[in-house]
Amino acid sequence: MKHIEPPLQHIFDLSDLSQAGAEVVVEASPEDLPKLAKWAGIDSVKRFTATVGLRRLSQTRFNYEANLTADVVQSCVVTLEPVESRISREIARELQQAPRLPQETVAELTLAAGDDDVPETILSLDYDLAAPLLEEFVLAIDPYPRKPGVAFTPPVEPETPQSSPFAVLKALKDRD
């Protein structure tokens, strides 16, 4: 599988984060907006901006909270006309730096079913603040956008029922 470079990155060094925390604005530049639209598989992105709040919980744990707003244009699934919509999401995650293990040690992954409150493990303190924003952005995109007031009407079926292959066989049998 080919690795696709994300259309937007904002690397932040979490080791520099003070106890007071930090507030960072992540915004797509006009040059990044077409790349973001292509990456998300939509017609266009007019605006993509987020305010990310970071707090240090311990030496290796961090709190990530963000408010994301994006204005997008998609094609209506019925008429193919442009449909504009706004995406607004609040994102909250807890990050935890992975423990440093000797290279000979192989760690086994264990997943706990239904345990959504587990901190997200990060490998480096150089963290991409845009990655969670991009994840939430693509999840929030309407997969079947419709222009307001437009409804899909299926084609009308013909009134005469078509004969089935079994009906034809029965007619042949009855003729004999």
From TrEMBL:
Pfam families assigned to the protein according to its UniProt record, in alphabetical order: YceD (PF02620)
Source organism, top-level taxon: Bacteria
Region (Disordered): 151-176
Listed name of the protein: DUF177 domain-containing protein
